[in-house]
Amino acid sequence: MNIKKINLIVGREFAIRVRKKSFLIATFLTPLLMAALITVPTLMTTLKDNNQKNIEVIDPTGIGEKVLEDQEYTHFTFRREGNPEDYKKDFDTRNLHALCVIEPIEGNTVEVRMYSTGPVDQDIQRYVSRQISNEVEQQRLQSYNIPQLKEIMEDIRTDIPVKALTWTETGDEKETITEVYMAIAYLSSFLIYMFIFMYGSMVIRGVIEEKTNRIVEVIISSVKPVELMLGKIIGVALVALLQFFLWILLTAIILFVVMALIGTGAVTDLAGSAPQMQGGLAGTIASFDTGNGMLTGIASTISQIDFGKFLLSFCLYFIGGYLMYASMFAAVGSVSDAETDTQQFQLPITIPLILGLFIMMHTFQYPDSSLSVWASIIPFTSPMVMLARLPFGGVPLWQLLVSLALLFLTFLAVVHFSAKVYRVGILMYGKKVTWKELWKWMRYKNA
Amino acid sequence: MSILVTKNVVKRFDGHLALDNVSIDVPEGKIFGLLGPNGAGKTTLLRIVNQITAPDEGSVFFDNHPLAANDVFRIGYLPEERGLYKKMKIGDQAMYLAKLKGMSHAQALSSLKSWFMRFGIQAWWNKKITELSKGMAQKVQFVTTVMHDPKLLILDEPFSGFDPINVDLIRKEILRLKENGTSVILSTHNMESVEELCDEIALIDNARLIVTGQVHDIRRIHGDNRIEILYRASDPLDPALLEKTVFSVISQGKKDGSYSMTVELKDGHTTNEMLEALIPHTNIVGMNEIIPRMHDIFIKLVTQKEERQ
After folding, report:
1. DSSP state string for chain B
2. Domains in chain A with CATH codes
3. What are the structural domain ranges in chain B?
4. Which chain A residue is nearest to residue B12, measuring alpha carbons?
C-alpha cells in the first residue's frame, strides 16, 4: 500500500466535506442546541406564569380555609356552601382561574374537584392536594385520641438516605452517585453509536457518488482500490473527529458565555440541572434536589472515574468501531448504484449496531450481567457496550484488552473482505448483486 | 521495440473465460488499435494492463520489464466508463488526479496550465463540471489522461461525446503525441479512425485474439483480389465477350464520365494477365486495387467466427 497516495485521498475526502455548508451548519448549530438543552430548563423555572389567579373554594368541611394559604400569584376565597352548577353559566365573567369543591365522603375523608373552562395550573393542583392530604391525615390521627400525638409523630419521623460508597484501588472510601455513572455511560456509548451511523452513511454516499460520477475507474488506474477505500474511510473519520472536537469546544464556550450573562447565581442552578438533564436522557433517573451535598456527590463520583483510561478507551473504541463498520459500509456502497438500493445490504450491518445500542440500555443498569460482559467483548457490539460498562469501574483489565484486541483483529478481517467486495463492486454497473455473488467475490484471489 | 507485451493472458470470471490466451505486442511509438465487438474482453485486457485487475495466468511486460506497481505513473488511461467529480472545481480535481499519478505540486501545476492553454480552456479552472457541456467535460477528461506525459496512452472510445470539431482536435492531439514518442492503445468501434490512425491492430472476439498485425497487411490479406477498372467507350462492355479464366466481373457502372467495372482476379493469376485480356476490347484509363475497409474486415472476421461455432 502506498501511504503517500492514501494521504492524498484522505486530504481530498476531508477537504471537500469540511468545506460543505451542511458541515458548517451542523457543526455550529448543534452546540447551540446542546447549550439550549442545558440552559433552557433552568431558565424555564425562573419564567413562571405570574398572572394573579383567583380560586374560589366551596368547602363545607372548613379544611380548605384552614390549610390553603394565598401564594405569590394565587388567591383563595372560601365559601361554606354553593352549587358548582351556578358557576357553570357565567364562569368566564367571574375572573376565576378555577373553582375548587371539597366534599366530605365516606371513610373520614374528602373528595376534591377542580372546575375550570381551561387547564388548571399543575402547581396549584399539587399544592391543594398536598395541603389537604396532610390535614386529612392529621385529623384521622387525632381521631384515635392518642395523648401527646404531636410529640410521638415528631419522634418517629425518619428519612434515611442511602449513601453509596466505593472502595478505590488505594483503599479509600468515596461517595458515589450511581446516576452519574449511568449518565456518562449512556452519553458516551450513544455518541459512539451515533457517530458510527452518521459517518458510516457518509462513507456509503461517498462511494456511491464516485460510482455514479464514473470517476472511480479513472482513480483506480492510479491507486489500488483498497487504498481508495481506506483513504475515504480515514478522511471521513477525521471529519468526524474534527466535528466532535468542535462540538465539545463550542458547547463549552457557549455555556460559559451564557453563564456569564445570566450571572453567578444561575451558575449553581445550571450545575445542578446539568446532571438532571443527563438523567432525563437516561430516562430512569428520578429528579433530585439541587444542593451543595449533591454537587459534592457528583464531583466525588466523577473524580473516581479514571478519566485517562476512560478517554483512551473511548477513542480506541470509537476508532476501532468506526473503522470496522465503515469498511462494511464502503462495501455496501460499492455494490449499489444509488443510495436507495443500499437497503438490502445495509440492514444486516445495522442490526448488530442497533443490537449494541439495546444491550447498552440494559448494561448501564446492570453493568456486570453476563449479557453485558459478553456483548462488551464481542466486536460488533463492544464499542457501545464496553463504554457503558467502563464508567462504573470493575471491568477486569483482561476483558478490556481482549475486547480491544478482538475489535481490531475483526477490523483487519473486515477490511480484507470488504476490499475484495469493493474492488469488484465499484466496477459493476446496473446489475443487482446477490449475496451469493458477494460470497464469490470475497473468495476471488485476484479480482 | 515493444512498449507492452502480453503473453498468454487468461482471465476467468465466475467460470466463464473473459480472456483466453491473449498475446499482443504493442510497438513503441505507434498507435495500436484494440478492436472487437462488445463483451469480447477488450476492457478486461485494458484493466489488466492498468493493474485494476490481475490476470489468472500469463504475464504482462511494460517497457521490457514485468508490469510493476509504479508503472501506473507512466501509463495514461481514459476508460470507457469515465467521469469527474461533480462538486469539485476542475482545476482542483485535475491537480488531485495529477498528484495521484505521482506528480509534485509544481510539476502538476505547470503541466496542467500548459495543457489548459493548449485546449483554450484556462477559464474553466475554477468552474465545476456541472457548469460545462458534455463535450467540454470530455476535453478536461482527456487532459487529465495525458497531463503526466505518459509513455503509454490507453484510450477506450476516446471520441464518444465529442462533436466533429472536437473529434478532429483529439485526433490531432493523438497524432501529435505519437510524433513526440508516446505509444497509444486505441480501443474503438469507429473503424474509420482505426484506418486513419492505427499502425497495428489486434482483433479480439469472444475472449480470443483473432488477428493481429499491421493495418495495411491485414487489409491486403483480407482483400478479395478485387480491382476497379475505368475505361472509355461508347457503350459498356458486354461481360459475356470477356475471358473468364483469369477474372470474373463482379459489377459494372459509370464513374466520372467513364465506365467502371469491378473484377475479381482468380487465384494464381496476375493483374498483367487481366490487362492483356482486357486491352483488345477497350480503352483502359485507370485501375485501382480495392483494399477492403476495416469495417468490412471486422464484420467478416467476427461473423465467420460465429459461423464456425
Report:
1. -EEEEEEEEEEEETTEEEEEEEEEEEETTSEEEEE--TTSSHHHHHHHHTTSS--SEEEEEETTEE--GGGGGGEEEE-SS----TTSBHHHHHHHHHHHTT--HHHHHHHHHHHHHHTT-GGGTT-BGGGS-HHHHHHHHHHHHHTT--SEEEEESTTTT--HHHHHHHHHHHHHHHHTT-EEEEE-S-HHHHHHH-SEEEEEETTEEEEEEEHHHHHHHT---EEEEEEE-SS---GGGS-SSSEEEEEEEEETTEEEEEEEEPTT--HHHHHHHHTTT-EEEEEEEEPPPHHHHHHHHHHHHHHH-
2. 3-42+175-443 (no CATH), 53-156 (3.40.190.10)
3. 2-220, 224-290
4. A447
Are B82 and A215 inside 8 Å of each other by CB?
yes
Q: Given the C-alpha cell 470493575, which residue does it identify?
A: A394
Superfamily, domain B2-220 = P-loop containing nucleotide triphosphate hydrolases (3.40.50.300)
CA distances from A66 to A63, A75, B285 (A): 5, 14, 137
What is the distance between the alpha carbons of residues B75 and B185, in angstroms, rounded to a whole number?
Answer: 11
Mutate one of B59, B100, B142 to test the A interface: name it (highest A CB count within 10 A). Answer: B100
B144 contacts on A by Cβ (under 8 Å): 218
Could you tell me if B72 lies within 8 Å of chain A, comparing CB atoms? yes
Nearest to A56 by CA among A86, A33, A25, A32: A86
Contact assignment for B77 to A218 by CB distance below 8 Å: yes
Residue B55 phi, psi (nearest 5)? -75, 150
DSSP state of A305: S
Q: In terms of pTM, does the model score above 0.95?
A: no
Residue B242 to residue B295: CA distance in whole angstroms: 32
B147 contacts B177 by C-beta, under 8 angstroms: no
CATH topology identical between B2-220 and B224-290: no
Instruction: Kindly state whether B138 is in contact with chain A, defined as any CB-CB distance less than 8 angstroms.
Output: no
CATH number of B224-290: 3.30.70
- Give me the residues paired with residue A109 across strands: A105
pLDDT tens track of chain A, all 447 residues?
789 999 999 999 999 999 988 899 988 888 888 778 877 776 776 666 667 888 889 988 888 888 888 887 888 988 888 888 888 888 888 888 888 998 888 877 888 998 888 888 888 889 999 999 988 888 888 888 888 877 888 888 888 877 777 676 666 666 667 777 788 888 888 888 988 988 999 999 999 999 988 899 999 999 999 999 999 999 999 999 898 889 888 888 887 887 777 654 444 444 444 444 443 333 333 333 444 555 666 666 666 667 778 888 888 999 999 999 999 999 999 988 877 777 778 888 889 989 998 998 888 788 888 999 999 999 999 999 998 888 887 788 899 999 999 999 999 999 999 999 998 888 888 777 788 888 878 877 655
Amino acid symbol at A100: C
Partners of residue B85 in chain A, C-beta under 8 Å:
16, 209-210, 213, 215
Distance separating alpha carbons of residues B308 and B302, to the nearest angstrom: 10
